[in-house]
Amino acid sequence: MELRAVGRRYGGPGSPWVLREVDAALPEATVLRVTGDNGSGKSTLLRLLAGIDAPSRGRVTEVPRPVGYVPERFPVALPFGPLGYLTHQARIRGMRRRAAARTAREWLERFGAAGHTHTPMAELSKGTSQKVAVAQALLVRPRLLVLDEAWTGLDPAAREELDRVVAETVAAGGTVVYVDHQAERLADSVGQSWRVADGRLHVESTGTDGPDGGPAGPRVQVTVSGPPGA
């Protein structure tokens, strides 16, 4: 995935540029952290990567599909309960009804929200709403997962579960791009870091070597036991 001379501004000619002259290539199978001050354009950059927004200038090419996106602000005033909403979203993404409902239930259970399957969305706590926001991005396993403050509001168990999802996504060859106000979030897994400042993008690092000489990042260890010679 590449951004070529990308710029974004809201409004007509003469309005200020939020981002300008962004040239970057998104690495595969990597965790990429985006940093910057409040209002620097981080969320705008994430929306461009996710395809939620379009550049005012330049091009975004070779976008991996499917894309999962967790916005900084998730709309909660929806005429659904979590199960109905997630099932509806899965159907939109091409699943048959039974598979859509099963997948929705699985993600609600995985994030500890199975007890609220039919609670109206407007009545959910912030934490449970955030679990639904994360789950909707994962209904179809994404090749690009974009997380804008996705851990905010989650309880410790759900935060750990999201960490596991990040590791699973990268292990499967996907890329995870995230913004989070906690500097230590996924610190041991980051393969590349981008900083947004003054409307421009700066590549700060490309990660460090792992203990086996390979790139740093999430690792999945598989232990197999069985009779000798099996």
UniProtKB/TrEMBL annotation:
Organism: Streptomyces oceani
Gene3D superfamilies (alphabetical): P-loop containing nucleotide triphosphate hydrolases
Pfam family, one: ABC_tran
Residue numbers spanned by region Disordered: 202-230
Protein name per UniProt: ABC transporter
Matches recorded under SUPFAM superfamilies: P-loop containing nucleoside triphosphate hydrolases
Record bears the keyword Calcium: no
Keywords carried by this UniProt record: ATP-binding, Nucleotide-binding, Transport
GO molecular function: ATP binding; ATP hydrolysis activity
ATP-binding keyword on record: yes
Domain called ABC transporter: residue spans: 1-223
